[in-house]
Amino acid sequence: MRNFRLFLFGHLVSSTGTWMQQVGQDWLVLRLTDAPLPLGITLALQFSPMLALGAWAGLVADRVDKRRLLLATQASMAVLALALGVLTATGAVRLWMVYTLALLLGVATAFDMPARQSFVSEMVGPERVANAVGLNSASFNTARVVGPAVAGVLIAVVMIGGLLAMDPNRLYRRAAVERGRGQIRAGVRYVWATPVLRSTILLVAVVGMLGLNYRVALPLLARFAFHGGAGAYGALAAIMAAGSVVGALAVARRGHPTRLLLIGSVAAFGLLSFAAAAAPTVLVEALFLFPIGAASLAFVATANSTVQLASDLAMRGRVMSLFGLVLLGSGPPSGLLSGWMAGQFGPRSIMLLSGVSCVTAAAVAAVAGRGRPARSPAVPGDAEQAA
Question: How far apart are CA 133 and CA 22, in angstroms?
Fold first, then answer.
């Protein structure tokens, strides 16, 4: 499918720029402060807009043309990446500037995520959603391995160029949601009234807040546990990202998400986190980070596919915004908690928290989900469209 190929290639380049910005931003904060808590504050600022704007951004994604919305968000991200690069290269950067750019990036991400996630189904149709989500995740995490050289320019030229080159007539469009009162509340009620959506998003909320804290853990481990520099941090991040690519490709090969894979990947993520917390050297740490990346991405991609396939077309933007809200919106409390724990008990305590929370969440989800179908049901709107 030409549209999806254009999107996939553009997303790879765009994500490469985003990951370079995030890795550079995190290490820059450590260089400026040499303390764990400011790193947690940066993460909290970057993801706080998702809490404030996430639900409304999902409604916007349901109301407007998603391709045009993505053009706007991607252009904004390119400008922010370029600004951080210029400030750093000229030596003018200060901590408050990093905080401000992180907050603005969070605003752009709040609108970008629900539009990008729900746009996938418009490009490929309902029958290929699970495969497309897996490939999209693989593209996202390949970017973490490759690393960009000129992030702002590449985002502007390649991702935005790909969106402009798409053929709108080949999209699986649906009628835009008309304006009305209470539409955000209706989306929340819809998620809560749908068991598959409710249980999956609750699981993502727990894992996102207490388990997916490696954005804070990795630079602190490299700096304080293994006494390394930016190279050690970059290597650990790249190895974990390489594992994430493998996990995403494994999910992409499956035709349909299953509850066994959803819960099993969380359990594996938690158990491996215990092992990584005890790693005596950076090499042993790297060996555990590869499967940790695979398990964590398999969970996120499976949850994403489950939520998309179980949601009605007219609600999908709002549903994906809630998915993004609990996944990325958990960043502020997670970042602050992780930064505080690292300062009090060392960076390994963050990984112990990840292990305990993920294993417990998997056990509770397994018990609560007894008797439910192993596969996520397709919703009527998608079935009719596929026919």
Answer: 22
Cα(257)–Cα(51) distance, integer angstroms: 27
Asked if residues 349 and 341 have their Cβ atoms less than 8 Å apart, the reply is yes
Token pair belonging to 147: 């690393």
Q: Which residue in 295, 244, 288, 247 sits closest to 269, CA to CA?
A: 295
Place of tokens 């158990």: 271
DSSP class of residue 179 equals: P
Tokens of 276: 């990584």
Place of tokens 């935005």: 160
In angstroms, what is the C-alpha Rg of the chain?
Answer: 20
- Estimate the crossing angle of helix 195-210 against helix 183-193, to 10 degrees: 100
Residue 375 has what DSSP assignment? Answer: B
The reply to whether the predicted model has a pTM over 0.85 is: no
Residues in the chain: 387
Strand partners, 258: 375
Q: What angle do CA 336, 339, 340 make, to 5 degrees?
A: 85
Helix/strand/coil for 19? helix
What are the distances in angstroms from CA 119 to CA 116, 125, 128, 197, 360? Answer: 5, 10, 13, 19, 33
Q: Decide: 251 and 132 in contact? Cβ < 8 Å.
A: no
Distance CA 48, CA 54 (A): 9
Is residue 298 within 8 Å of 247, Cβ to Cβ? yes
Give per-10-residue mean pLDDT for the chain (387 aa). Answer: 69 66 81 89 88 80 83 87 84 92 91 78 65 60 43 46 66 57 78 91 92 90 88 85 82 79 95 96 95 92 88 81 81 87 93 96 89 56 41
Structure-token pair, residue 299: 């969970």
Q: What is the DSSP code string of 65-80?
A: -HHHHHHHHHHHHHHH
